[in-house]
Design a protein that fits this description.
Elements (H helix, E strand, L loop, with lengths): L10 H10 L1 E4 L6 H16 L10 E2 L9 H4 L2 H11 L3 E11 L7 E4 L1 H5 L3 E2 L4 E6 L10 E3 L11 E3 L10 E3 L10 E2 L7 E5 L4 E3 L8 E10 L3 E2 L10 E4 L16 H7 L8
Antiparallel strand pairs: 1-11, 2-3, 3-13, 3-15, 4-12, 5-14, 6-11, 6-13, 7-10, 7-12, 8-9
């Protein structure tokens, strides 16, 4: 990844991200009114979920809900990403990860890169994890293992209880040290940024408070989407110049056919 002295991150924050694989941003990400409009939009989406649809599984909603680009392409968000990826930025993915109070599932230790495989080359993805609710150790905030982004493709084994986990595999225990984990506690409208190869996970939410975040994932516009993924995944040019290495979708158009094509094709990072 590039390191650029621009945008909303200080040189120290960029250095921390580079060294540890993540950084926490305590300043409000979005203007207050725009953040509240995102929360309201999410509440409408949550209320409209079909029966049986898990609130943890609201993946790539922007493929059919074009209003989300109001926030995904917001300069306040992209200015956080530009110091890490450079001025030419593409949207890779987004995902609402909502853990209901008292029953939100555990997210096993994993690297997003292991689920994405060779979808993008190079595998240099920056995730903005925007807190919609307060995220605390009690309600299952994200936890990271600093410095592990230098790997990205660990070995995985099945979890002991698939029904209690968001997905069914986890990094094998001998490949990470959970004692080094850092809790990413956030207030609403704060965020963390993490590298797509960083080991992370979260505990179950057994508290009385919901925990919801919106993950907005970005790559350099110089990155390439694998040819085999064109049928079931979209990239969008968010800022800067199109380098002609991969086709971009139209953010004003919904793509229900892409959602249909994803069934059975895509494993999701969290």
């Amino acid at each position: 990844m590039q390191t650029v002295a621009a945008g909303r991150l200080s040189n120290d924050q960029v250095a921390h991200f580079r060294r540890e694989g993540y950084v926490i941003v305590r300043d409000p990400v979005l203007p207050a009114a725009k953040f509240q409009s995102l929360r309201a939009h999410f509440e409408d989406m949550l209320a409209a979920l079909p029966p049986g649809k898990s609130p943890e599984g609201m993946d790539v909603p922007h493929f059919t809900d074009t209003k989300l680009f109001e926030w995904l392409f917001d300069d306040a968000v992209l200015d956080l990403v530009e110091p890490l990826l450079g001025p030419d930025i593409a949207l890779f993915s987004s995902h609402f990860i909502c853990k209901p109070a008292g029953q939100g599932k555990r997210v096993p230790w994993h690297e997003d890169s292991a689920y994405w495989g060779d979808m993008v080359t190079p595998m240099e993805v920056v995730t903005v994890w925007l807190a919609l609710d307060e995220a605390t150790p009690t309600n299952g905030c994200m936890r990271v293992i600093p410095g592990t982004h230098r790997g990205g493709y660990s070995d995985y084994a099945p979890v002991a209880d698939p029904s209690a986990n968001v997905f069914g595999a986890e990094i094998k225990p001998h490949q990470f040290d959970a004692k080094r984990a850092v809790d990413i506690a956030l207030a609403p409208n704060q965020c963390s940024l993490h590298d797509g190869k960083l080991m992370h996970g979260s505990n179950a939410n057994t508290s009385s408070e919901r925990r919801c975040g919106y993950t907005m994932r970005y790559i350099s516009a110089r990155s390439r989407l694998a040819e085999r993924c064109h049928s079931h995944h979209n990239l969008y040019l968010a800022r800067g110049r199109d380098h002609g290495v991969t086709p971009y979708a139209d953010p004003t158009r919904a793509y229900p056919e892409i959602i249909a094509a994803r069934s059975g094709e895509v494993k999701k990072g969290h």
